[in-house]
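--- STAGE predict ---
source: upstream dedup step, 1 unique chain passed
mode: sequence only
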Amino acid sequence: MLDVCLRRRQGEFSVDATFRSEAAGVTALFGRSGAGKTSIINMVAGLVRPDEGHIIVGGRCLFDSNTTIDLPPEKRRVGYIFQEGRLFPHLSVRANLTYGMRLTPRHERYVQFDQVVDLLGIAGLVDRRPTKLSGGEKQRVAIGRALLTSPSALLMDEPLASLDFARKAEVLPFIARLAAEFSIPILYVSHSLEEILNLADVMVVLDSGHTVASGRIEELMSRSDLQSLTGYTDCGAVLSTVVESNSEADGISYLRYPGGVLKVPRLAASNGCRVRVRIEARHVAIALVPPEKTSVQNILPGTVEEITFANGSFVDVKLDIGCPLLARITPLALRTLELKPGQKVFAIIKSVAVSHGVLWPSGPATAP
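--- STAGE serialize ---
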C-alpha cells in the first residue's frame, strides 16, 4: 500500500502531489519532462525532504511532518533502480547482487538469491563482470540487486530510458512480474505511455509538479479531459482481459472482459492468462444496428455515455460496453447517426486493430 501526500517548493518550482494505491502492484508517475516525477520519487526515497505531508508504505510511516517522523534513506527499506544500472565494475554480477543483501539483517530477508536469479533469467551471468553485459542484462542485474535487499517497496526512475527497443522488450516482462511475485508496491516513473500501459495498475498523471488525476489505468485512459496530457494521438481505451480460449484453425484468441468477449489475432498465451489490451478511438466505428456479412470480428453492444467535441474535425464518443470504450468520429457521422447519451449502439472493432501489452499468467491479481 502506498499513501503519499507531499508538498515542497524548489525555487520557482513547487510539488503538490497526493495519491494512494491500496494493494501491491505498480503505481506509475506519468507526465512530461519537468512534471516533478523524479522529485517525488526522491522524496519517497528520503533523498529530498518535503516541506510538509506524509509518506506511508505498507502501513509503515516513512515521513510525517506533523509528527516529525523522517526516517533516513537507509532505514526506509526501499530499493531504488535508476536509469543506468550503476553496477560496481570491479565486482562480479554475483557480488553486485549480494552487495546490499549482506547489509540486510537475516531476520528481515524475505527474498532469496536463487529466487531472484531464476525470476530475472540471469543464472548464466553471475560469474561475469558488468563490462561483459548488454544494457538489458545490466538493468536486470540492477533490479535483482535492489530486490535482494528485501525492500518494502521498489522505486524505479525511468529504468528503461537508456535502452533501445529490443532491450526494453527484453526487460519489460521481468518488471511486469515483480509486484505479483514478491507482493510489494512499485513506484514507477516514466514519460512513456507504452511502458505504463504494459506495467502499471494505477497511474498518477502529473503536470507542473501537481497531481492532475490518479486512478486505475482503465479509468484514466478513457477520460477525454486528460488527452492533452496523455497525448492527443494516444486517445483510446484500455481493457483488462483474460484469455478464455484460443483457436488455431481460426487464428483467433477469445479474451473475456467485463462486458463480454473480444476477438483478437491469436496470442501465444494459455487459457487464464491475463492481458491488458488497448483500442485506439480512431479504430472504433459506431453502428445503430449490427452489420451483416462483414469481416469485422468484434461487434459489441453498448450505450452512449458522453459526447465531447475534441476539435473542429473530431468528436469523441464515450461508450459503455461493460467497461469504458472511446470512439472518434466526425461531426458528420454524429449528425447522421443522431447520437445522444443513453442511446443503444454497436461498437465495431477490427480484431487486428487491438494491441496488447505484456502477457501475465493467471495469478494473485484480480481478474476482470
